[in-house]
Amino acid sequence: MFLAVDELASYLHERRKEKGYLFIPYLLLGDPSYEQSLEIADKLLSLGADSLELGLPFSDPAADGVVLQRAFRRVLAQGFHWQDVLVFLRKLRARYPQRYFLVMGYANLLYQHGFLRLFEELYSLGVRGVVVPDIPLEEKERIRRSYGLGSYRDKVAWIDFVTPTTTPERLNKILMQARGFLYIVSYKGTTGSRNVSFDEVRKALKGLRAMTKLPLIVGFGIRQREHIVGLLPYADGFIIGSRIHEIIEENISRQGDLVAKIGEEISQILPPKELLSV
């Protein structure tokens, strides 16, 4: 059995013990504004979010479906500056000094900023994991060596993706160096699908549970309480992203009601403990 001890994995294990499951919302920074993003972050954390996967806008988000693509365009239309991200993270760190966060961004942004500088800045601001959908396993290891990231291996976990179609050989390679948690992609395709069968991912989760002690977090297509209840016997937690930005899109003109609407709808998706024990 593969076991990696790093700061993010340790944190998530403790959170899992406290409340029974892990809830990690995805939030694209700046949608619909940076001020409201912070209010939405506050609301999600008040609902029990254990971390936040904070998305960086990008013009060609290959892993994201149409809902998040439209959200990316809304943010980019305002102008995106790395300084905005740092200011946001400083505010979040000041409000939640005991929480660890994740940043999700595409390779082009990370290369432009510089990997070592990026990891140094993120770590100082409470980020303990990065998600980079368009850098494969082999390239990730080359980047670690080329940019001198060895000292950050257990400080800022570089999250790996696993799908129901990942071969046993590749899965072994992933598990040998995985940190933080395993991001379990529930289906083939981009984020935000409304018609998802979770049968295959449940089978994959059963096998993975015997192979690693890293937290198993499922993402892509989770938008109903029934999805979560059906997955949590096999997984440690879940990520909700597209549904949050659908709510933003549907209520963007309502301003003051937006954050309350997100809280109301996400509360209806999150399962109470008594339902999970049935």
Main sheet overview: 9 strands, parallel
Give start-end ranges of low-pLDDT stretches: none
Overall number of structural domains: 1
Distance between the termini: 29 Å
* Overall mean pLDDT: 90
Order of strands in the sheet with most strands: 5-4-3-2-1-9-8-7-6
Number of strands: 9
Individual helix count = 13
The portion of residues forming beta strands comes to 5-15%
How would the global form be characterised?
A: globular
Structural class: alpha/beta
CATH architecture descriptor text = Alpha-Beta Barrel
Describe the structure.
This protein has 278 residues and is an alpha/beta fold. The protein has a single domain, classed as Aldolase class I (TIM Barrel, Alpha-Beta Barrel). Helices cover 48% and strands 13% of the residues. Helix 8 links the parallel strand 6 and strand 7. Helix 2 runs parallel beside helix 12 and helix 11 runs antiparallel to helix 12. The longest helix has 14 residues. The relative contact order is 0.17. The model has no long low-confidence stretch (mean pLDDT 90).
